[in-house]
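Query structure, 169 tokens:
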């Protein structure tokens, strides 16, 4: 009789998975970002993504309507590309260079009222702009310049970069 009781208890206890999380504890958070979510911390995450060559983190920082605007010194004019092209170009950059060191210097923060910023979003979206100088070291090559970042925060989402204007040559 004791053996059947022991088998019954072992069988009963074996149905419980001690490594299974309790209901409600599993998080659906897939975002790799750190810290408080402000435009300033998005730039810190941007630095981290570049410096660690983390393309997943980088992709999470860009709004679906992201636009990169730049000047081409060899072909005068202003050019731009969207999120998908930027992710491909940045992914190649991360693979080509062994050492990447991006540093944003002094940040100048300007917040816009959501009604004034309809160019970048819908009524209710928050928009912010940060103009900063930066230095980007790719292996032994040093690039320096100024960048103008515009951020958008939809009411139920985190801050993301919607536009990056690179003023470096």
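Result returned for the query:
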């Amino acid at each position: 009789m004791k053996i059947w009781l022991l088998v019954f208890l072992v069988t009963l206890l074996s149905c419980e998975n001690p490594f299974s999380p309790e209901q409600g504890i599993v998080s659906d958070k897939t975002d790799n970002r750190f810290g408080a979510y402000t435009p300033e911390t998005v730039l810190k995450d941007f630095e981290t993504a570049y410096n660690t060559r983390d393309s997943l983190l980088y992709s999470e920082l860009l709004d679906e309507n992201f636009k990169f605007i730049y000047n081409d010194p060899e072909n005068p004019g202003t050019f731009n590309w969207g999120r998908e092209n930027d992710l491909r170009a940045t992914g190649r950059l991360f693979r080509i260079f062994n050492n990447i060191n991006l540093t944003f210097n002094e940040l100048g923060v300007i917040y816009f009222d959501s009604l004034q910023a309809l160019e970048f979003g819908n009524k209710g979206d928050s928009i912010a702009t940060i103009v900063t100088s930066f230095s980007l070291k790719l292996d032994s090559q040093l690039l320096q310049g100024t960048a103008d970042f515009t951020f958008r925060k939809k009411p139920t989402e985190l801050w993301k970069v919607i536009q990056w204007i690179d003023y470096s040559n």
